[in-house]
Amino acid sequence: MTAKNRRRWNHNIHYHPRILRAVPDGSRRALDVGCGEGMLARALRRTVPHVTAIDLDAPSLDQGRAYRDDIDYILGDFLSHPFEPASFDVIASVATLHHMDAATGLTRMRELLRPGGVLAVVGIARDTLPKDLPRVLAAVAAGKAHRAVRGYWEHPSPIVWPPPVTYPEMRALAAGLLPGSRYRRHLLWRYSVVWHKPRD
Q1: Is residue 140 included in any domain, yes or no?
Q2: Could you say which of 108, 111, 113, 119 is the most buried, measured as most Cβ atoms within 10 Å of its Cβ?
């Protein structure tokens, strides 16, 4: 990681390590869905020989292409781009599923993942108030503490708010579409889903 990237922090970057730890040994091809300016794609490239990164936002991709690397950046719609089915060992996505129909997005990722591959998603869902108020207050306090120490990097990509799916709805979607997946809700307004596609 470059010194520039080490200085960056926000709620999405905070959970990049969760995705990177999920990358299986021997992975040859990775796909970063909704890559933005490519920070996660560059991290994946340190261990995966071929990384493809796709996004709909041209200015963000232009920033990614300014780095000296061999990542294959694609301007396009992940849902309709003609990727080969079962062609990636790793599919990663951060804060992207709420930009599309989540069920459609997860189904597409499942189709593009090879048997034995890993899907790792960090996403944003909607709090359910007043039930989630204690979580929200804890997240605000933790976020302020992180910002005080590390600052906050504003990413260049478009924002969708509020997220259309609640945390319980996202958990149910993952369980239904990705049997055996590990869902976890995190403190800083994020959830993660990690799924190993069966070989059979």
Answers
A1: no
A2: 119
